Amino acid sequence: MRLLNDYVLTGSLLAVALLNSNAARSEALPAVKLHGPPQTLQFVGVSETGTPQFQTADGSSVAIPADQLAWWGRLLEFPDRSHVVLRNGDVLHGTSFLVDSATLRFTSSILGPVELPLNQVAGIVLQGSRVHGAPDQRLRLLLGDQESDQAWLLSGDKISGKLIRQTADAVFLRAAWGELELGREKVAALSLASRMRGDPAKDARWLAGLRDGSRITMSEIESRDSALYLRDVRGLEFSVDVDAIGYLQPRGDAVDYLSDRPVGGYRHVPYLSGAWPFHLDRAAEGGMLRCNGQLHLKGIGMHSASRLIFQLREGDQELITWAGMDDTARGGGSAAFQVFGDAGGMAWRALTERVILRGDDAPRRIHADLSGMRRVSLVVDYADEGDILDRTNWLNPRLR
Predict the structure, then answer these.
(1) In 211-257, which ranges are E strands?
(2) Number of domains in the chain
(3) Residue 172: which domain range?
(4) Mind listing the pLDDT tens digit for each residue in 187-220?
(5) pLDDT (tens digit per residue) in 93-141
(6) DSSP-derived secondary structure letter, 257
(7) Would you say the C-alpha torsion 285, 287, 288, 293 has a positive or negative sign?
(8) Are residues 248 and 264 in the same domain?
(9) Same structural domain for residues 310 and 194?
């Protein structure tokens, strides 16, 4: 048993031999780099310096540093399965949830038995297929600020109070009129009031997606004693088979996402009526960012016709992003994407050509040279049919 910052992970650690002929191998998946074409690669581990190591189909080794890797693999989603949502948006799939006044315990098919403090938990989805509302709406509600815990019942009712404990058979909640015992089979999910202290996101270095649909923000990935160890931003350390990892994306000091910068101005021009907002790290209609069936956690959702401005910092030399139509457009919509720059005095000029995307077009990489620019503007304009279903995404926008 290992204890790190009040987090406990029990069970056997699965040692993974890396970077040799007998090492476990992940599925070959696209590695998207900031420069150069994507490559289909197998993830095989990390170097001594923490650089992700991959392998081509012919067995050649490829190292892609964090400042060059946009992402590798794809995030899997299984919202109907039982899972835990953490305060920073991480998701851990598991079963056999037990709760007391301070601790959540459950079993993960990949991580084994897991124990973590309740103050880091936003919610527990016990019966995902039976929670009222779409999965993205559920996630927003669980991550929202609320003053009390709630039990979400299969009937659609919600009972507010304070969660006392959860056993294998029942959920105990102290409501305004007294203590309630709710049969486990009647509860779809538990939403917990915010108890979080501190900001674990400041230690983020990687986002790792697991094959069971879990996604974990990591502070460290390293090879030690022929094993691959992961340490999440809350201090939980564990080891997994390398083929359990299906997605990697850099975070932290090595990368600079435009969606993490303060917005300097926004304007939307309705085609007829009805103004659309923009969203950072969410789609225009408020859900998660998805293009061509793939989930993305970093990006900007906008609707035509609109313009979003960011102030640049000294040293910002280029913007690299991927433009795409959001999956909520259901194959419809058409929009023109373009990046503009201002060197000062409102002297805006186009930094890229117009990129027109329609319906189910694959996302397109857009590169803008920011040399000499003080501000950058993302512009989404009408293309074929006014603003009908023009729900657009700027995916993984990176400044360098």
Answers:
(1) 215-224, 227-232, 237-239, 245-250
(2) 2
(3) 1-253
(4) 999 999 976 655 556 678 999 999 999 999 999 8
(5) 999 999 998 999 999 999 889 998 999 999 999 999 999 888 999 999 9
(6) B
(7) negative
(8) no
(9) no
